[in-house]
């Protein structure tokens, strides 16, 4: 690649020499400014400098990218024509030989078409990567070279003489039978249009397939083309107008260079939106004024027609400008100017409980390149490609931070606009609620999984106890009973010993059955009721336990009653083990739910570290659709569980 840079510098030097020849020659021949403009020498030079200068920068900075070299060619072509003009004028004035003048005229005619009809369309086809859209588009590259050659042939072989200083100079390339090939030259004159349309088609396909960065690069070119074409379209359509409007064409290579080297220089979408808006409005105002002037001139016979047309245009301009600006901004920036609409668009996706869809909605509503939701440093969902610059929006629910929304700053912007902040601030509330609900759902799901796991573990334990303990004990008791029956007549002493062993085994089996039954439902609940069972358990602990309950508790669902008992006994056991308390009070209240409170006089505001006991309490409450709150207080520890009487299925 470095070997190409000397060639780039050489071509740039050649362009500089041509500019010098054109400038010195025009000054030496004392060509007036009007003649410079009318002969297109000034515009050719400016266009050539723009294309060659930008092409040279790209060829040096990005030698592997064909765009720079093609722009260099597009600049050298008009510069060659511009440099030939004063040389030809000098030759005419000083009587150079006819063959020299005709040679210069041939170069004049053959040089400039290559730039506008071949090199420029080719540069647009491979912009910005330097390669065609795909291998299948290479035919367009070759076709553009062919149509460029056809157009150059049409321009160079035309028999009309080149008029300089009042003298016509013919080219060596003239064809005596030029007029006989009229259809061919007509098609050749249309060739540049087809080459340009092919380049535009390639740009459209590249834009649709490209990522966010590529699209922004293409928008730079779109902006330049809009300005250049918008300024010159009237003169191209009607065949007249100021020639100096062609000076807008160098904006194309400037935009191409910025797009390749510094496409993040500024927000091109804002520039493009304002350019499109004001060019459209300018053309609309000119057209409307001309139409109204003609209409009023006919209706009013010229009396006050210009004044009335001007007044109507002035009254309609600002409303039309505001309406148009809103439409253009909506296209480039989404609904950020209407926060309510943006929130409603995203809210419709929030209802679907799809975080990725919500982020896509935010990107669509604000035309942002990237959006993501994070919680505790973990990315929950993301949409788009993250740019270099990110903006973080904290998401809080009831004063607690539940996560953050990360959005990508648009390429070319250093920060988000105030209108973007307004929309994101409105979205922060619903998003925080959604994240909080998502966290709760994850906790509930995890709790259910733990409950199912505990239930399966309990069933496994029962199966093991029945299979390994009670089952073999009863089987052995059956064998001993058969043996005692066989020995009762022949060996009564052995039968008596076997019966004693049998009675001991049955007693142990009964103890096992009681233990299993107690694990399923404590017998004290049936014997003493819920309050009495809690008092009995409290009497076994090394602290004073007081149970405050109604005299007659209503009949409770079995699952609720067992859960309240297990929660109460576990809480009291934790107090005895960890609270350094001397007394505890149990409070029971029943209305639409059972409320159990266990209070102790342990260390005030002491540290609480949730362990197996507290997790078990919370899981029992959650399993029945209830809640449990546990923690230290200024007077000691507290555990409060609320269980609804309607047990969820």
UniProtKB/TrEMBL annotation:
Keywords: ATP-binding, Kinase, Membrane, Nucleotide-binding, Phosphoprotein, Transferase, Transmembrane, Transmembrane helix, Two-component regulatory system. It catalyses: ATP + protein L-histidine = ADP + protein N-phospho-L-histidine. InterPro entries: HATPase_C_sf (IPR036890), Sensor_HK_TwoCompSys (IPR050482), Sig_transdc_His_kin_sub3_dim/P (IPR011712). The chain crosses the membrane at residues 39-60, 67-93, 99-127, 139-157, 184-205, 217-237, 243-263, 275-292, 298-317. One of its GO terms (molecular function) is kinase activity. It holds the Pfam family HisKA_3. Its EC number is 2.7.13.3. PANTHER family: NITRATE/NITRITE SENSOR PROTEIN NARX-RELATED (PTHR24421), NITRATE_NITRITE SENSOR PROTEIN NARQ (PTHR24421:SF10). This is histidine kinase.
